[in-house]
Amino acid sequence: MNAVVLMLVGLATMALGFFFYSKFIAEKIYRLDPNYRTPAHELRDDVDFVPTNKFVLWGHHFTSVAGAAPIVGPAIAVIWGWLPAFLWVTLGTVFFAGIHDFGALWASVRNKGKSIGTLTGTVIGTRARNLFLVVIFLLLLMVNAAFAVVIANLLVANPASVIPTWGAIVVALFIGQAIYRFKVPLLWPSIIGVVVLYALIFVGQSYPITLPESVMGFGPKAQWIILLFAYAGIASLLPVWVLLQPRDYINGLQLFVGLGLMYAATLFFHPTIVAPAMNANVPDGTPGIVPLLFVTIACGAISGFHGLVASGTSSKQLDKETDARFVGYFGAVGEGMLALAAIIACTAGFATLGEWEGVYDKFGSGGVVAFVNGGGNILANGLGLDPGLGSTILSVMAILFAATTMDTGLRLQRYVVQEAAEIVGARPVQQGWVATLVALATCLALAFGAGGDGSGGMVIWPLFGTTNQLLAGLTLCILSVILIKQRRPVWFTAIPLAFLLVMSLLALLVQLGKFYADQNWLLLGMDIVILIAALWVAFEAIMAMARGAGGEAVAESS
């Protein structure tokens, strides 16, 4: 099959979802009000609450939620064949991710910018909120620790990516000052920023940077992990307009340039998809496609982490409530476009089926390496780029997105620590810098828990996708309760909710048996904690739905 057909069908489906389905949701379900006073104005402090141009905010939101996951998930899941991955990415983006991300943003804006965890206490009850915070904290711990390890591995493996990765921070600082301090119109900082960012890729190829083999007993990967967390800790405390917003915005632009190059190369090269539509010869040890497909591809179809970003940072920066459609739903579409590109790169970027099967010889293979190599081949054949340059462009794209997720993830983890400290009355921990230190300490403890090389951050990776999808289901629970109480149609959130809860709970049970058989007691214990907390929250949400259906309609928050 020609990859161009897959690309056009996928992009057209997502475009129809944004232009028509999201418009219906905005007008008939969430009923956005252009005159509603958002928390960015009502609670403005120019640190977390900052009214923001919708294009800049979209850049922050999209790059924060994207990370490396919409590349890694599809790049692993195509082992079952390209068709299941394609269907889940396209339909999941339109009917699951869009309404989830959009809804979390809307619900938070209507409740003074509260995070989805805090909102659980308002909508369902205190006990559900406390359990929900446990699930959220564990997910953020996985995201921050694991992504630090992923980025460190890429920086060690690709020394040419070091200069553009860290140079992007300097570019972002200048853009933030230009837009907010000197009131420069958005166009020129955007153009100059993208040009400089891509120029840094060429500089990086000429001047690759490697760290010393050992510093105080730490190898290069461990050194990068420490540096990454030091940066993320500082970034999480700065006002969002100084670094977080402009960095995410410029990364969003460079991603769309990268995606444009990838899709243009596919159009000109029109490669053949060599992978099977349904793989009947999966390697031994590959788990069943149901339910594992739906948790392997989390970001790119639907992701609970998106709800944390939407309600944790994006809701505090929304200028007008009507901007929520563009920021939330189109942010999900951007993620779907990246996942679609990953599917094409990992199924049409190889010369033969035998070459593809050589890469996908066991479950978990492929990943970023398959995306970079396959995508590099498509760029080389379609646009005539040097294969090394094409691979570097895709490597830097993956690193920058993983890094922006860390920035936002640590800020969100600080919020969760502060909320938990408020619940238990630990006043010192409610301070921003103390909560950040707590978040950093737990992430570093996990990253280095399995040894001095920092590989511990990947220990709980098998639970990441499952917990992520479970959180998305629980977020849809909250949205469904709100809609029921306001006497609005609920099927548009309830159907995705039911599907996600069933698949993620099945995945937890499947993994529970595997962890027990492998005698992996850490993962077994975490699996049990997450399973109990999720079932409890889901039960209380169902009870809240029943109470809402039988009670009087609740007025909208104002």
From TrEMBL:
Keywords, sorted A to Z: Cell membrane, Membrane, Transmembrane, Transmembrane helix
GO CC annotations on file: plasma membrane
Keyword Membrane: yes
Main location group: membrane
Membrane topology: Multi-pass membrane protein
Transmembrane residue ranges: 6-26, 62-80, 86-109, 130-156, 162-179, 186-204, 224-244, 256-277, 289-309, 329-353, 393-412, 433-452, 458-483, 490-509, 521-539
Subcellular location: Cell membrane
A biological process term (GO) from this entry: cellular response to starvation
Domain CstA N-terminal, chain residue ranges per copy: 2-347, 365-507
Cross-referenced Pfam families: CstA
Alphabetical list of InterPro entries matching this protein: CstA, CstA_N
Family classification: Belongs to the peptide transporter carbon starvation (CstA) (TC 2.A.114) family.
Name of the featured protein: Carbon starvation protein A
